[in-house]
């Protein structure tokens, strides 16, 4: 199933979804010990909490380093986890190693309430069940923008201009946030911006980032740091989320899945003050500076069939309207009962704008993402030119791709 069709179909479905969401009643319960390894953000916590109500021996390990732990954990025999939380960016190593199982038989037997948009197929087989769509979109302090007469920026240049005005007004010293932690996060911000400027990551299996568009993307990232906390090299998703919650930043092109935390009265000082808009364009005639992601659940291959069946049925409990009722703003859900609220408006606008590609679920993309994350910081901290850093990225990718048999 081409992901672009998936994303657009989901956007249409949001406007017609039922608002009814029933309280949790478990259609399936089990005493089997079942473990889930997934990312640590609000949507996965909501899914895990719903699952725990139906299985007293269920355990969820929510960890932002899940992507580095899953390959080894699922390759064990038996697997260390029955279930995994994945995205189109993290499922690839599990597919490559053959450590997750096709779900066609289980879907046929138990998945009557799943929608076609949730069935993630690889080579014709259902390999994951989708639960949400995710992407970067603009999150901004509406009160600050209104006070200064600013409009939500539609491009990255406009975002820098707005940051300058907020700083000049003395409202915030560092008004801009971004996930520019050295490594994976920094590479993703580059990929988002490079794509938003119209760049293509590959020509076949050959990486194509060491070019004029790549240089412009890096230069824009460097310009952004002038309006960011000086500790931006450690700024991951949790860091930016806390900056918003503590009132330290006024805007960021940031994960939709983190928006709901801004209205958490327990930990946020900006409840009701954050609005969302479409991801800014990379250039005036560019695309939204984001790639489109899905998150979903996979079932381990190296476990007994009866355990896999129990785990799958428990996963379906987590992918129910009870989770939407528990955390209605935690995600752009693909689950029954979801109706988008104000914190999803930017994501919907981004999807409707079109042009943003899906993050490629390929071995090549995984290698390129790593290569970019290992090299571009040398430019951003002033040790190399943008051209040299990008050339290093392509060389590192080429070496890894040849070793993996992806390039001749």
Q: What is the strand tally?
A: 13
**Secondary structure category:** alpha+beta
Distance N to C terminus: 29 Å
Helix count equals 16
Integer-rounded radius of gyration? 21 Å
Low-confidence stretches: 1-23
Helix content: 40-55%
Mean pLDDT: 93
* Helix/strand order, N-terminal first: HEHEHEHHEEEHHEHEEHHEEEHHEHHHH
Which outline best applies?
Answer: globular
Strand content: 5-15%
> How would you sum up the major sheet?
7 strands, mixed
Please explain how this structure is put together:
This protein is an alpha+beta fold. Helices cover 40% and strands 14% of the residues. The chain contains 16 helices and 13 strands. The protein has helices at residues 3-14, 42-52, 66-75, 92-97, 104-110, 142-148, 156-168, 184-196, 212-224, 237-245, 305-318, 321-326, 345-353, 363-375, 377-380, 386-403, and strands spanning 34-38, 58-62, 83-87, 119-122, 125-134, 136-141, 176-177, 202-203, 206-207, 251-255, 274-277, 293-299, 332-333. The strands form 3 sheets. Strands 1, 2, 3, 4, 5, 12 and 13 form a 7-stranded mixed beta sheet that branches. Strands 7-10-6-11 form a 4-stranded mixed beta sheet. Strands 8-9 form a two-stranded antiparallel ribbon. Helix 8 packs across helix 14 (363-375). Residues 1-23 have low confidence and may be disordered.
């Amino acid at each position: 199933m081409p992901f672009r069709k998936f994303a657009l179909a989901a956007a249409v479905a949001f406007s017609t979804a039922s608002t009814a969401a029933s309280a949790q009643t478990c259609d399936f319960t089990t005493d089997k010990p079942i473990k889930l390894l997934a990312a640590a953000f609000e949507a996965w916590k909501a899914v895990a909490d719903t699952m725990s109500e139906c299985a007293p021996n269920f355990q969820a390990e929510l960890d932002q380093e899940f992507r580095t732990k899953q390959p080894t954990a699922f390759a064990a025999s038996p697997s260390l986890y029955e279930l995994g939380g994945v995205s189109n960016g993290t499922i690839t190593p599990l597919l490559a190693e053959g450590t997750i199982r096709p779900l066609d038989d289980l879907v046929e037997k138990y998945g009557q309430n799943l929608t076609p948009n949730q069935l993630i197929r690889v080579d014709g087989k259902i390999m994951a069940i989708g639960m949400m769509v995710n992407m970067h979109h603009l999150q901004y302090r509406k009160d600050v923008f209104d006070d200064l007469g600013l409009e939500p920026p539609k491009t990255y240049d406009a975002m820098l201009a707005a940051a300058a005005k907020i700083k000049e007004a003395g409202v915030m010293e560092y008004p801009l946030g971004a996930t520019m932690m050295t490594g994976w996060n920094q590479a993703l911000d580059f990929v988002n911006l490079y794509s938003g400027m119209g760049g293509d990551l590959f020509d076949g299996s050959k990486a194509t980032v060491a070019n004029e568009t790549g240089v412009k993307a890096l230069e824009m990232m460097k310009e952004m740091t002038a309006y960011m906390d000086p500790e931006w090299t450690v700024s991951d998703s949790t860091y930016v989320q806390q900056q918003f919650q503590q009132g330290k930043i006024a805007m960021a092109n940031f994960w939709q899945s983190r928006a709901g935390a801004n209205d958490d009265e327990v930990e946020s000082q900006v409840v009701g003050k954050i609005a969302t808009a479409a991801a800014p364009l990379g250039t005036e005639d560019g695309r939204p500076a984001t790639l489109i992601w899905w998150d979903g659940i996979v079932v381990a291959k190296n476990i007994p069939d009866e355990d896999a069946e129990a785990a799958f049925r428990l996963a379906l409990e987590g992918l129910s309207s009870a989770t939407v009722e528990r955390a209605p703003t935690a995600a752009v859900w693909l689950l029954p009962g979801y109706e988008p609220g104000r914190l999803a408006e930017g994501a919907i606008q981004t999807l409707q704008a079109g042009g943003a590609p899906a993050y490629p679920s390929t071995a090549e993309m995984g290698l390129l993402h790593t290569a970019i994350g290992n090299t571009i910081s040398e430019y951003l901290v002033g040790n190399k030119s943008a051209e040299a850093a990008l050339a290093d990225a392509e060389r590192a990718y080429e070496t890894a791709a040849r070793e993996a048999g992806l390039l001749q």
